[in-house]
UniProtKB/TrEMBL annotation:
Biological process annotations from GO: iron-sulfur cluster assembly
NCBIfam families listed in its UniProt record: ygfZ_signature (TIGR03317)
Residue ranges annotated for the GCVT N-terminal domain, each copy included: 25-141
Species whose genome carries this gene: Salinicola endophyticus
InterPro entries reported in the protein's UniProt record: GCVT_N (IPR006222), YgfZ/GCV_T_CS (IPR017703), YgfZ/GcvT (IPR045179)
Region of interest: Disordered: 327-347
Name recorded for this polypeptide: Folate-binding protein
Length: 347
């Protein structure tokens, strides 16, 4: 990945930190602009071999059969107590060959966890550091034949394109590093460069939380609305943590939920910062935060008590917090329904 870092620097990019990049014109581009974004905060863990599907079926909340090369379902990996170790998107890129797209900080910890069980199966796990992930946001002629439905994918022998939800059309493109510069050049002919923050704000607007290593083992899947996004199959067989996850759903025991909010001030709060009500009682925490391009506030994902009313006065670090509506209904989205409605596979 060193060569890719050099390429981003040659394009005027600068690392904001170890995983996020920014470009000189970022501040002048609104969130509804069309853009090309390096998705350096995401990465791929590969599961490959004759037993890959069977192995994943026993570890993940998705029904692996739904990952059919057309639908790329969301999923989680849990502890025996049902807490999320990592959330991911599951892509079938070839027979007996799967990619998990997840936050880069969780690839190594998840691999270490899964390696405990891998020796009992005919399959291998590998961090695909040779892949580059790009984000395409907005209208572009290049995307004319790409999937038009969220969580659907198209692929060829080398690259994969997956549609993600958001206020603008957007796609994640994963391809070998040695092909990335050519694809980058083709895309920049139509799209302006933008930093990782643009993609992260689109995730916030979509009510989509990609957990980091700092969040690992903190939430039940329902606390990040994963069942409302179709990321939990309640009809498949057992997987690690399944009993707790199912009990929380059927008994209605989820007391905290993911929400969208806006915070006064242009400095993002530290992840995990406490949300307090008018009586200074802690009622939740910040899950993700990005500065609004207007510079007048911050866009947030929060995990907050379900007992708190939407219009209740709230604050973080003494700054006013205003809640916003989720872009999807807070009810179970049946992944079996999604699978049945999958678009025909695309070449």
């Amino acid at each position: 990945m060193h060569d890719w870092t050099a390429h981003l620097e040659a394009q005027g990019g600068q690392p904001r930190d170890a995983l996020h990049w920014q470009f000189p014109d970022d501040a002048h581009q609104a969130d509804d602009a069309s853009a090309l974004v390096p998705l350096t905060h995401l990465a791929v863990l590969e599961c490959r071999g004759a037993d890959a599907a069977r192995f994943l079926q026993g570890q993940t909340s998705a029904n692996v059969e739904h990952a059919n090369g057309t639908l790329a379902p969301l999923t989680v990996f849990c502890t025996p107590k049902g807490r999320v170790l990592a959330n991911a998107e599951l892509l079938k890129v070839a027979p007996e060959h799967y990619w998990l797209v997840l936050h880069a900080s969780l690839v190594a910890p998840l691999k270490q966890q899964l390696d405990k069980y891998a020796p009992f199966y005919k399959m291998t796990l590998a961090a695909r550091d040779d892949l580059v992930l790009l984000g395409v946001v907005g209208d572009t002629s290049i995307a004319a034949t790409w999937p038009s439905t969220a969580w659907h994918m198209a692929h060829d022998n080398a690259s994969v394109v997956v549609r993600h939800p958001g206020p603008q059309p957007r796609w994640l493109v994963a391809l070998p590093a040695d092909q990335a510069e050519t694809q980058w050049a083709a895309l920049t002919a139509e799209l302006a460069l933008n930093g990782t923050d643009l993609w992260l704000r689109a995730d916030i607007a979509a009510g989509l939380a990609w957990l980091t290593q700092a969040h690992s083992d903190s939430y039940l899947p329902q606390m990040i609305n994963w069942e409302a996004l179709g990321g939990i199959s309640f009809r498949k067989g057992c997987y690690t943590g399944q009993e707790v996850v199912a009990r929380a759903h059927f008994r209605g025991q989820v007391k905290r939920r993911l929400g969208v909010a806006r915070l006064a001030g242009d400095t993002p709060p530290v992840l995990g910062s406490e949300i307090r009500d008018a009586q200074e009682k802690r009622v939740g925490e910040v899950c993700q935060a990005e500065t609004d391009p207007s510079g007048t506030g911050c866009q947030l994902l929060i995990v907050i008590s379900t007992a708190v009313a939407d219009d209740e006065p709230l604050q973080v670090e003494g700054r006013e917090l205003t809640r916003a509506p989720l872009p999807y209904p807070l009810e179970r989205l049946d992944p079996e329904t999604l699978a049945a409605a999958s678009e025909p596979a695309q070449a």
